[in-house]
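Weekly modeling sync, notes
Attendees: AB, CL, MP (scribe)

Item 1: holo prediction request
CL wants a bound-state model with uridine-5'-diphosphate before deciding which constructs to order. AB pointed out that an apo prediction alone won't tell us much about the pocket. Agreed to run with the ligand included and paste results into these notes for async review.

Input as submitted:
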Amino acid sequence: MYKRILLKISGEALAGENKVGINSKAVGEICDRIKVVSEKKIELAIVVGGGNFWRGRDGHEMDRVTSDYIGMLATVMNALAVKDALESRGVCAVVETAIDMNTIAESYTKRNSEKYLKEGKVVIFAAGTGHPYFSTDTCAALRAVEINAEAILVAKTIDGIYSADPKIDSSAVKYDNISYEDILKKNLKAMDSTSTAICMENNMPLVVFSIFEPDNIIKVVNGENIGTIVK
Ligand code: UDP
């Protein structure tokens, strides 16, 4: 059983059937499972993506840095929605942002994050790393290492890591286990290369699984072998 984990939720997962924006039903279903994990006395931090609103790299007609800041702001909207859904379920949650915006959330510090986690609060990291040209996957890797999480649970819209994109290539095979080196060598689209490298250098295990079966979060926490494990 894990003592402290970091859950990465992509923005897409929060959009549910709508594909864009925030879908309260989808957020609610995820938060129901987070509540179960939190009740098991597992310290849980969350990094939320922003792709349901905006991705800086998507070729918007503007300066990339500005575009990335818009993406980071999108993650803050998602974080607030997740916090609200958790609190309405009786789970204490704190949003910590990498960019100061103290009117709506606390600024990230490792010290406070660990204090809240020890108090049993769910800590939601928003605004990514605070730096353009990075991703929330990289933020997940960075924060997991900083707060000494035991693993990163990566909830994706695909049920693991495949040899190719299974939506395009029907011969794609799913890996049950894979090394960081192989992900980098084979250029697999599990996490981006920066985050994979951070995990590799710091021996941070990853478990990649599908968010469409929300019970998967609980299964992973219970040690069931689902999705793909990266070590
Ligand atoms: N972003 C950024 N720096 C970070 C994290 C995120 O600039 O450290 C921006 C970037 O534009 C990214 C967007 O925020 O495209 C949303 O994050 P991401 O694409 O990782 O979200 P996800 O695909 O996980 O929903």
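Recorded for review: The longest helix spans residues 64-88.
Action items: CL to compare against the apo run; MP to circulate these notes.
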